Amino acid sequence: AALPRWGMHPRVLDLTIPLVRQDLRLAQDAAVHGLGLAVALNKADLVTPEALAALRTEAGEYLQHRFPQLGRLPVVFCSALDGSGVDALRASLVEVARLRRVRTTPAALSELAGAWPSTGRSWRIRQIEAGPPAFLATPPPGVKRDARFVANRLREALGLHGVPVLIRWPERKER
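Predicted structure:
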């Protein structure tokens, strides 16, 4: 199947029904294929505003725990019945599409990596692709390669939530 046009996989879920294995598999497939992910929870008109606030927190925490490689997913509550939330959903989709194509300057990456823990020399980070963002990371001597550490630091610093952040390593020289 062809990838979605904007490089993302919007999911509209019924908030009155718990997530099922198929929903989770589709979200996992989106992440594996480098797609951004936005989640719309439909039937918000059936829930009180107080309950929606609690659901927003609960849904966000659950999705971040389930899909850490995408960070904090944008979660939008909407109602197909009354049309509420459609503008917020559109804005989330546009933002995820923008984040998926983001390019960062070498100077900004150097400044970010300079603040990471190291053993004297700094990490070197270079963006090698966009759509989704991919980075070449070179740790200082004696520092372990940890893709999750690097991706999480970049995601938080650059606000890359809802999109995978890919980390590549330079080829190791044979001794």
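Summary: The mean pLDDT is 84.
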